[in-house]
Design a protein that fits this description.
Layout (H helix, E strand, L loop, with lengths): L8 H15 L3 H19 L4 H8 L7 H8 E7 L11 E8 L2 E8 L4 H7 L7 H16 L4 E7 L6 H5 L2 H13 L5 E10 H5 L6 E5 L3 E3 L3 H9 L5 H8 L3 H6 L5 E3 L10 H20 L3 H13 L10
Parallel strand pairs: 3-4, 4-5, 5-6, 5-7, 6-8
Antiparallel strand pairs: 1-2, 2-3
Helix pairs in contact: 1-2, 4-13, 6-8, 10-11
Length: 314
């Protein structure tokens, strides 16, 4: 059964009415209701607040990394382990084909259901996950295989074991190593992009976000707890943090926005998966027109431009 958010109540009611009309074979009513539904979807989703977009990014029915991998890849083969400690299921690495292109896909996987979430640690990677991602990236670099990274995490795992195994060093190492790759790389935030947990697989030639994904240095709940000592002010924090794809594109912190269906990827998964696949293949073709040195320089200039500020003339 579909899960509806609080601002989708009217949409839920119309879809229930359409189901009833279809049961009665009332095609006239179905036609009228579907037109009403189309108008309601456009009205609702074209006026979303930043907090509502955050809710969509976290929607339990939203496609996760494995949904994109299964929907886009053929001949896929999973790569396990970091060759130092163990295998972290919160990060998945697959070698295979997207269309006719041989690709390495690295994604953060949240998991569904209680068992799945526990297995994937709610999409919060440990150091061995980031080291596995780096091992897969180095393999791709060796054979000049393009890399697609799928970002979807509330943040890196903050547990004692992760800290003992140098969580911050693992993330910092990825930032350094991924910035030095010469094979074409594309990173897409498909849901939540949380702090260093997202940054570790975000350094790429092209960084994009799905329309309703979010990308932030801290969760709005964490921000509101720190600034106001009141987690209930998460909506205020979400608006202040500029976490949406539109805001980050305007600030030139990301390169592109992938236009998932207006009603959201959680309602039209196949269309969302196709949109991401099309974006990746188109972007990859553009990157292949550049030499490795040109891509490297482009990435360097992009990274060096981050954190710009302007002094007040007064």
């Amino acid at each position: 059964m579909a899960t509806y958010l609080d601002f989708e109540d009217k949409i839920k009611k119309l879809e229930e009415d359409i189901t009833v009309a279809k049961t009665k074979n009332d095609e006239h009513a179905v036609d009228i209701l579907e037109k009403k539904l189309e108008k309601e979807v456009e009205k609702t989703f074209k006026n979303l607040s930043d907090y509502q977009k955050l809710q969509l990014a976290r929607h339990p029915d939203r496609p996760y990394a494995m949904d994109y991998i299964r929907g886009l890849m053929t001949g896929e083969y999973e790569i396990h382990g970091d060759r130092h400690f163990d295998d972290d299921p919160a990060i998945v690495c697959y070698l295979g084909y997207i269309g006719s292109e041989k690709v390495m896909v690295i994604g953060e996987q949240k998991g569904r259901g209680t068992k799945g979430k526990l297995k994937r640690n709610f999409g919060m990677p440990s150091p061995q996950g980031y080291r596995k991602a780096l091992r897969a990236a180095r393999m791709a670099e060796k054979f000049n295989i393009p890399i697609l990274m799928l970002v979807d995490t509330p943040g890196a795992y903050p547990g004692l074991g992760a800290e003992e195994r140098n969580q911050s060093e693992a993330i910092a190492k990825n930032l350094y190593e991924f910035s030095d790759l010469t094979t074409p790389t594309v990173s897409v935030v498909i849901g939540e992009g949380g702090s260093g947990g997202a940054l570790a697989i975000s350094v790429a030639d092209k960084l994009a976000m799905m329309r309703y994904s979010v990308y932030a240095v801290i969760s709005p709940e964490g921000c509101s707890a720190i600034l106001w000592n009141d987690p209930a002010k998460a909506e205020t924090a979400a608006n202040a943090l500029k976490i949406t794809s539109d805001a980050l594109k305007e600030l030139e912190l990301i390169d592109d926005i992938v236009n998932e269906p207006l009603i959201g990827a959680h309602r039209k998964k196949e269309e969302a998966i196709k949109a991401l696949g099309d974006y990746f293949l188109t972007t990859l073709e553009e990157l292949k027109q550049l030499t490795a040195a040109q891509r490297y320089q482009m990435k360097y200039e992009k990274l060096m431009s981050l954190g710009r500020f302007q002094e007040d003339e007064k």
